[in-house]
Amino acid sequence: MTGAASAAVIGIESDCGGTGTGLTGSSFSCSSDANRNDTGNIEIFEDGTGAGDDDFFSLGLGGTLVVEFDPTFQGPAIVIEITNASGSAQHQEAVEIFGSNDGITFTSLGIADNQSGVNDGTRGVSTSLSFAGTFAFLGFRDISQSFFAGTSSTDGFDIDAISVNSVTPVPLPASALLLLAGVGGLGALRARRKS
Questions:
Q1: What confidence tier does 2 reach under pLDDT thresholds 50, 70, 90?
Q2: What are phi and psi of 132, to 5 degrees?
Q3: In angstroms, rounded to a whole number, what is the distance separating the alpha carbons of residues 68 and 113?
Q4: What φ, ψ does residue 2 adopt, rounded to 5°?
């Protein structure tokens, strides 16, 4: 996986590429185009901004993707769907987006589709999704067929880029570190006297 984020993307699971099996319980039909099954096509940005390029990953109809981030992130998040401009009825596609902290229990954060959002004129639709909470995992499940009855999509929602707002861990103040060192030293001294 490539991208402009300095935050580490430490895990990726997908039904149609990467490792693992994505979110559990999905039935899916992956793209017949091997280039669209490469999770390395997704660009990751950690500052809530960014634009994609011409490479993208197709979820597959009913397919899923899970990305793990370090550090954790909070909303809003931006998802760029590359293949269609807003208003195009040919390949209507939608995705439900989930957040998780353990990679097992996921909470629905909302839905993005390629018929709404902001069209940048070249790369398709950018959808911003606002949500509360801090998460370590972001999950995507294609819902194109249930969201758009009669869609002609053959490989589901296509993700060009994902942008989140990373949460920098709060460092302990120097006084707290000195206190911890002092307590540890007292414990070692007490153990030494007992022996």
A1: very low
A2: -95, 155
A3: 22
A4: -105, 170
What is the per-residue pLDDT across 120-170, written as a single tens digit (0 to 9) for each? 665 667 888 888 889 999 999 999 999 998 888 888 898 888 888 888 665
> Which residues, 6+ apart, have CB-to-CB distance to 140 below 8 Å?
59, 64, 65, 66, 79, 95, 96, 97, 98, 157, 159
Asked if residue 150 lies in contact with residue 54, where contact means CB atoms within 8 angstroms, the answer is no
Q: Of 138, 54, 35, give the one whose Cα is nearest residue 96.
A: 138
Strands 2-3, 118-119: pairing kind: unpaired
Q: Check if the beta carbon of residue 2 is closer than 8 Å to that of residue 55.
A: no
Decide which of 70 and 18 is more confident.
70
Residues 127, 145, 87: CA angle, nearest 5 degrees: 45
As a whole-number percent, the residues of the chain with pLDDT over 70 amount to 66
Give the Cα separation of 5 and 38 in Å (integer). 19
Q: In the beta sheet, which residues pair with residue 94?
A: 113
| pLDDT score recorded for residue 143 | 93
